[in-house]
Each structure stands twice: as structure tokens, then as C-alpha cells.
Write a structure and sequence with these properties.
CATH class of the largest domain: Alpha Beta
CATH architecture of the largest domain: 3-Layer(aba) Sandwich
Helix content: 25-40%
Strand order of the largest sheet: 15-16-14-17-18-13-19
Radius of gyration: 31 Å
Distance between the termini: 51 Å
CATH superfamily of the largest domain: P-loop containing nucleotide triphosphate hydrolases
Number of strands: 35
Largest sheet: 7 strands, parallel
Structural class: alpha/beta
Length: 818
Amino acid sequence: MQHFINVILPIPLEKLFTYSVSNADFDYLKPGMRVAVPFGKSKIYTGLVYEIHSTPPEVYEAKEIHRILDEHPIVNQLQLKHWRWIADYYMCTIGEVFRSAMPSAFLLESETLILKNEKGVVNEGDLNDDEFLVYEALLHQSILKVHEVSAIVERKNVLPILNRLIEKQVILLKDEIYERYIPKLVRYVKLGINYTSEEKLEELLEALTRAPKQSQVVLSLFQLQAREKKPIKIDDLSIASGGSKAVIKALIDKGVLEEYRIQTDRVNYEGIHTDYGLKSLNSHQKKALEDIRQNFDKKKVTLLHGVTSSGKTEVYVKLIEECLKEGKQALYLLPEIALTTQLISRLQDYFGEKIAVYHSKYSVHERVEVWNNVIQKKSKAQIVIGARSALYLPYSNLGLIIVDEEHEGSFKQFDPAPRYHARDAAIVLANLHGSNIILGSATPSIESYHNSQTGKYGYASIERRFGNVLMPDIELVDLKEQTRKRRMKGHFSERLLNEVTESLENGEQVILFQNRRGFAPIVECTTCGHSPQCPNCDVSLTYHQYKKQLRCHYCSHHIALPESCEACGSQTLDTKGFGTEQVEQEFKTLFPEAKVGRMDLDTTRGKYGYEKIITAFEQQELDVLVGTQMLTKGLDFRNVSLVGVMNADSLLNFPDYRAHERSYQLLTQVAGRAGRTKKRGKVIIQSYNPYHQILKQVSVSDYENMYKEQLYEREQFLYPPVNRIIKITFKHKNYNSLNEAAEWFAKSLRNVFGKGILGPEYPPIARIRNQYIKNVIIKIPLGQPLGKTKNSIKRIERSFNAISQFKSVRVIYNVDHI
């Protein structure tokens, strides 16, 4: 009887692929194991076994698998269910979820090696020039790779040449599979086996009297062994003895010392583990904890609405502690990698080395180690802290999920697929595991708050700051009035400068928020009005003074700052608008004594970029921190007394139905960084329109009224939470083809759904990376079945792809677009 497996391949194709397996492999294989499989003429190597069965495919002859790559499944059944849900809900393929979920080291790569055929008889006269070049190279080199052949013959497509050489029996092809994960092996050293007896040891020390450095190394080894009672690293021995690595190597070569290696995790906790419960909960936190437990008993998703600095983390710690006592795993999701830096050190004080961290700034090897630790249920991975990708880890015993700062847009993935929302995917994951889930925020999203008000979610709140510290005093400054009275210095109002001066004199720290990086968004010629544009995108280039560059923030195209106007040749270039770089420079001019740091995408690119800046600010090495919205997300600085918002208008005047909600959240969050200990903090918000309703609501922390107003507007215009939204984006390099395709698709949608179709429309930036973009938005009433709606859209897409002129137009779905 024949046996088959269905395999998920990491490619964006809808269906699973069927391969045949032998009886022995059939008994051995389990869903979740990786297999090497052939696919088409080229090979995509890593497939994941989805199911095992005995039904042959109807349309094609099933190929055999190459080999099995795992001894045990590295993906469990609950993960596969979760992946299937993500693929179905967010209208992508399970192959795209597989590629996104797995650390790339698990997706093995193949390299085709080209060898000389030793058995073949080569007639050099039969070879043309290109073939002879390859043959000649193999006479000097035993193995060639495809890209090396391409370089030798100076052609991209070398397959025809290789095929002809195979027919002429000149070469052989061999496929090698390379596993990309390389374990970290640390070098250790011990005394050689010949010198373990006392007599031999005495002889050795006598012989080494004429080599004092080598003698010192051996004596240091004894001292370290006596003191530490554990294997000795070569690095530690080198430091302890003061001897160089060369001296140790000489002793290894002589056989006096013996070198060996031990596999070690790349990420290890180093620090002092203090006992649980560093802070006892106050009455407000205890009440919230009790409410959360009651909701957990009812198996409800629970929203914790706690004002900034109310001590939500301490409540989470208590819940994690209870979860660990039951022997279960806990997942702590954060929207921003910057946040993990601060949180890790805090949680390590409570839980020691039970914590694993997983996010994209970690190397692929470090992520593989965390994956393996989670699947093996090791004690060092009982609590996983991470950004949205931590959802994908192979949990088998999940007891608690915490989604902190649940309102954050960073939880939504935009590119590439799957375009999932980590908060919603986490709720489904908790459901699959039967675990508790808590969503925490000082400014909950309208959807989550609406769900708690309608009884779908449980609700708990903390309305007082920890230690009864007062909420910050928020003051609105009218930039129009300040400019008219000539009280502005650069982009700083007189009021903000006075407060900054006072804070710095008192030895307190200041945060300045400007939600735009770079020096200035536009460089303009004051003679002819020309502004340098990106050649690949419909957007002006941003000036970065630090590198004297104009950069595109969409495709990273950059040029040196021109000395004169490219249009009229005039040298009258001026900048419009301002970013964090300009704020930093102006501040240094106004306060030359102050130490200023900047935190934006440009300064946090490295693995430890966030950590360095946050630690320097925490330890008060910096007086002022200028930054973008990275600053707003739950960071806890104890000595910040003043927060300045440089220009609130850029947030409010944004063409998006969520602009006002986001502005409220962002401004409230950044205000919450001020005055987190005893003294009341101060926040100054500069705006040309200080009478705007949202700014007034921020200044008095009136979340309830903001929610009611926004909900009323959403009900009027049919936006979430009263409707669902699917955004369909069309991309193509040809302007006319895109227009035709988008119109055809929108017309088909209107024929099926009637109303609720907006577009097709160009977005504010209508071309990115030389691809024109058009959007269609579908509004789906809550009563309309979502599954049927998606099936109808997919049917239209199949008809769309059948039209030859539309085949090259890319269609992208964004479900629950935010």
C-alpha cells in the first residue's frame, strides 16, 4: 500500500503538496517534522509535514521525498491549527505563515555543487568556449558552485551550459543541504591526561621552571579549579593567569593541557536573582487583580485599563507567578523592541533565569535556541518576552498571555504576509490552549474598550498612579500666538524654554517628542520652489544633516545634499518642517551645557541600540532625550519631570479615520513619561490649534468622552468597531494597467456586495519603489458572515487572475486594516 504526506512549503501558493513516502518513513514521520522535498526543476528544500495519509493525488504523480530532517516534530499540532487560522482569517497562504513563523535557520538551503566526471572521456574539441571555460576551471578546482560558474562565463542563466556538459559526460551535479543553524561551542581547557598523577605533575612543574609564563598558566588552572568547581573556559584562564592565548596554545600543543568544547546557548541570564514580590500591591492594584481573577474564572479575555505609572507591571508579575506555580508557560507580548530592554531587567529581578527573549533584533542562531528551549519545555523558557513574532513559538503548555500596550499599531504586521494583528492572533492562541489572556493599556483601543463595555471582554481598572503620585499637569501652548509675539526661539516656545531651564537647574530630566526623524522633511529652492524628489517613490527626500544626505524613508534611496538647485542652479536652498535631528541641534545651541541623546530609527539600528540609549538615560548620563514615538511606549524613567511635545498638529491632521484616536493615545502615553515618582510632572504641548477637542481631552485625561465621540463618528461612517474592514491594495509598475485592473476588481465587488465598496483610490503616496498603488476598501457589517465574504472576494480574484493582462498586477489583502 502506498503512503503519502501533505507538505507545507514556504512559498505563497494556496494548496499543500503531496509526496510519497516509504513504509518505514510512514511509520517514523509525524506532523510537524521537516522533510527535504523536490519541487519543480529547481528545489525548495524545507517542507513541513502537515498530515499523513494513503490517498494519492489526482492531478499529478507524487514525487518521493529526499530525506527526513528531524528526529522529533519541531512544530506542534496547536501551532499548525493557529497557523491555519491566521492564513484563513488574514487571507494569505499557510506557506507564507510558515516562512514568517520559523527562524530562517530552520528553512534549510540547498546548493548545487558541480564536480568533474572522473569516469567520462572528454573530447576538448567538442566543447564550445563557455563549456571549455567551466571544464578548465574544474581542472584547477575540484568543486564549483552555480554562482561561480555564472561568474566564469559572465552569464546569469548557466543552466543550458550545465545541461550540455552533463550530456557530454563532462560534469556531475550534486545537491548538498546546508543547515544554517550553527551551535555556539565555547572552548574549555583541562589538564592533559598524562599529568593526572602526582609524580607526573611534579615533573611537569619542574620542567616548566624555565618557562615562567607557562608555569603561571598551569598554577592559575589549579586555582580556578579549586575555587569554581566547574569547567574552565580558555578566556577565563587567559585573564586569571595574565598569559596570552599563544602561551595556552603552546601548552595544548605539548599535551600539557587538553582543549574541549561545550555547546552553550548564546543568550544567558547573568545577574542576581532576588526573591519574588519586590513591591507589595497597593489597594487599587489588589482590587484590579481580584477583578482580573474573577474574569479569568469566567474564561473571559480581560482588559486592564490602568493610567500611566499605575503599576500594571506589578499586577502582571503576580499573574505570571500564579501561572508558573501551576507549571505552565507565560507569554508577555510587547509592541516595541525598545520596551523589552527595560522590562527584561525588571522581570529578571523577580524570576531570575526563567525568561527567554524573542524578537527580530536577535540573531537567527539566538532565535533557534529560544525555539528549542520552548519546545523542550526548559526552565529557562518558562516566560517568553517578545514582540509579535513570539506568538509563533511552539508552546505546548501555555497558561497566560499578556498583551501590554494593546492599543499599539506596531502589533499589526503590514509587510510581508501574513498581515496579522498580534493582539487578535494572541486571543485565538489563548483560546486554542485554554489559557488566560489579559490586554493592558492606559489608552485602550476603541475596539477593545467597546468589547469590554458590551460584555464581550472582562474589565479591570486602576485609576490612580502608584504611590498616589498626581497625574502630570498638561499645558497647551498656542504657537500661532507665540510666533505673532516673536517669542519663539527656533521651534521652542518661551513657555517650554522656561520649563526646560527650571528642570535642568533642579537636576531633573526632560523628554522632547517630535514624531518625525531626520533634520527636515523637505529641502526647497526659495528661488524656483523646486524640491528634490525620490526617483522611485512619489515623495520628497528627507534631509539628514548628520550624514549630509537626502534620504527616502520608503525605499532608502539617498543622495548627497546638492549645493545648488537641480532645476534653476540657484544656491538658495532652504529646509521646511523639522525632525528629531533639528530639535536636537537647536537644543544644543540653546543649552550647550546639557547632555542630549536622540532615540529614533537612525540611532537604534544595532542590536544593542535601544539598550545603550535607554540605559544612559536611566542612569542619568543624559539630561535630555529627543525622540519619536518609540519614547511613548511604556518606558519607565524615574527622574523625568518635563515632557515637551514639539508639534501636536502633525498627528491630528492625518487622512485616517483613526487619526484622533491615535493622537489621544500617543499624547497621553508620552505625557505619562513625566513625574512617575514623588513630584508631579509637567507636560507642554505646542500646537497651532490648542482649542482642538482631542488636545483638550488629553489635557484633562478624559478618555471616556474621547471614546464616546469617536464611537459616534464611527457609527455614522461605518468604521470599526461597528463594521469590519478589508483593504485590497493593487500594485503594478504600469500606471494604465493598474487603473484598468483596480477598476475591474472594484466593479466586480460592487456587483457582488452592492454597497460598502470605497475606491479604487490612490493613497497619499501613490508610488513606492517604482510600483503604482491603488486601494479599495470593503466595509463589512457585523451581521454579514465574514467567511462567505472572503470566499466571494477570492472567487473574484480567481476570475481576475484568469485575465491575461491582469496577471502581473499584484493583489494584497489587509484584513482589519488599521
